[in-house]
Amino acid sequence: MVASLQARGVDSVGRQHQKRPADFRRGQWLGYQDPLRSWSKPARPAWLDEATSQQVPDRVPWRARRGRVSRQGFRTSILLVLTTLLMPTTFAKEEIAEL
Questions:
Q1: Which helix (H) or strand (E) holds 32?
Q2: What residue spans define the domains of the chain?
């Protein structure tokens, strides 16, 4: 889905799924606590036709940012926010964490 949005020129911001591992030891760093990673193309799901699957790039780059969500009366949650807004000079890591 992220690759199809990128093909249309649309960037995305979202929360990382809790079952997908987050390894901050690898990859390239844009700054302190501002990693640049990429997802590799998964096996073609049954609902996706072959022609569309061929159009999906082999790797999709993304940035990760940990953010704290505090609500009175609840525990503070730490979420991992992923985005395809890759330019650290244009999009600060604090702004991404706020989203």
A1: none
A2: 2-17+27-98
> Is the pLDDT confidence value at 20 over 80?
no
Query: What does the pLDDT look like over 31-74, one tens digit per residue?
Result: 777 788 888 888 888 998 899 888 888 988 888 887 777 888 98
Structure tokens at 23: 């390894």
**Most distant CA pair in the chain, distance:** 50
Matching residue, tokens 């985005």? 83
Structure tokens at 14: 């979202």
**In a 10 Å sphere around its CB, with 0-12 CB exposed, 13-18 middle and 19+ buried, how is residue 16 labelled?**
middle
d(CA 38, CA 99): 20
Mean pLDDT of the chain: 83
